[in-house]
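Exam revision sheet. Question 4 asks you to relate a sequence to its structure. Input first:
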Amino acid sequence: MIGRSALPLISLMMLLSLSIVSSKAQLSATFYDATCPNAPTIIRNSIRRAISAERRMAASLIRLHFHDCFVQGCDASILLDETSTIQSEKTALPNANSARGYGVIEAAKRQVERACPGVVSCADVLTLAARDASVAVGGPSWSVKLGRRDSTTANRDVANTDLPSPFSGLQVLIDAFDKKGLNARDMVALSGAHTLGQSQCFLFRGRIYSNGTDIDAGFASTRRRGCPQTGGDSNLAALDLVTPNSFDNNYFRNLVQRKGLLQSDQVLFTGSTAAIVSQYSRNPRTFAADFATAMIKMSEIEPTLGQNGIIRRVCNAIN
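Answer key, structure tokens:
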């Protein structure tokens, strides 16, 4: 039998539970159906135009979404410029002279603002843009739940500590994703975004000149042509040498052949994640399905909801 003193506690727990359920319910695939029904179409068309003009942009937009969600959750904090009160995440080590696509998101936001002023958050624009970028280069689609609000601040320190490094070992990567509620399979699937995009020479120089047993000698020799031992730090190389601008599973085939460009790529084909890499290398449909699932999970990391946050009129500044 429950004593009277326990009843207020139970009531409080029920209220908290209802509050949590209510908070989560604010993210919905139909969130803008009444207030801005054309928003997803407007954003999709804007992203398609940008990727048509520069196919590499697909990788940049997916990466931008990832770098946003790993810092304060998916709140568009990465889009804020430096001010006297904001230390921009754009200047954090993983983003400086590296993260790109800000102008593409601003352009999509401007078009949405013309249709529905002050309704659609930059965080939702970025989340939809990542999905649309995947589709534009032959990748999977997925249902995006909407209703995020924008942060009023950024966090450069967290960007410097929580975004995985291209030099990370396997356990460090597993722990970094686990901290965000993503398991090892999610981590490997999301790493598959490196089937697209490029990397700067200084991030893989040590690997291609290491003469290590975990890198194919011919692949290393090929990559050395565009990445000298000294100089050329910003020279670019495709993360996937085979099909750098198409979403497929060649990234995982490369890892099996010891042709991962970054150390953080190749370590996935070791230890507890090697079997996942092998599976994805053999089955592109499994990879695509798992990538979509992991992107949904990532897009729902600590979203700013309800009365928290704001709807920014432009994405790089507070209203």
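Marking note for examiners. The chain is about 50% helix and 0% strand.
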